[in-house]
Design goal:
α1 runs antiparallel to α2 (34-57) and α2 packs antiparallel against α3. By secondary structure, the chain is mainly α. It is built from three helices and no strands. Helix content is 73%, strand content 0%. The protein has one domain (9-98).
Length: 125
């Protein structure tokens, strides 16, 4: 009885993971600035990839162990990378407000003063 339910459970988990990832892709594309789209992408890492890895691991214990290791690695590295990207953008905004020269070239300005972060062009409706 339980063996007959496992493929159905795996299918439900795959669909759940794909729905969450699809919604997060739309969230990343629709958010107006880098910080909000980064938040949408980092949330989807745990909530979207987790069910996919669990569904892959339903078939056997070896795959489940590897999937749990991958999920653990992603849960540890996704917030760290999101924090690093957000901090770099915030640092670039602070430098733009002060108007410091670009350290890579030694002359000119790093970012035009008054810039409010990375803005994406709005999608046409």
């Amino acid at each position: 009885m339980m063996a007959a339910l496992l493929p159905w459970l795996a299918d439900v988990l795959v669909v759940l993971g794909l729905v969450v990832l699809t919604i997060s892709v739309f969230g990343v594309l629709r958010m107006p600035d880098l910080f909000r789209s980064l938040h949408a992408a980092s949330i989807a890492t745990a909530l979207g990839v987790g069910p996919l890895l669990i569904a892959a691991g339903i078939g056997g214990s070896t795959i489940l162990m590897r999937g749990s290791l991958v999920l653990g690695f992603m849960l540890l590295t996704a917030p760290v990378s999101a924090h690093a990207i957000a901090r770099a953008e915030r640092h670039a905004e602070d430098r733009a407000a002060v108007g410091e020269p670009d350290p890579m070239t030694g002359d000119g300005w790093a970012i035009p003063a008054g810039r409010q972060g990375l803005r994406r062009p709005r999608a046409r409706r």
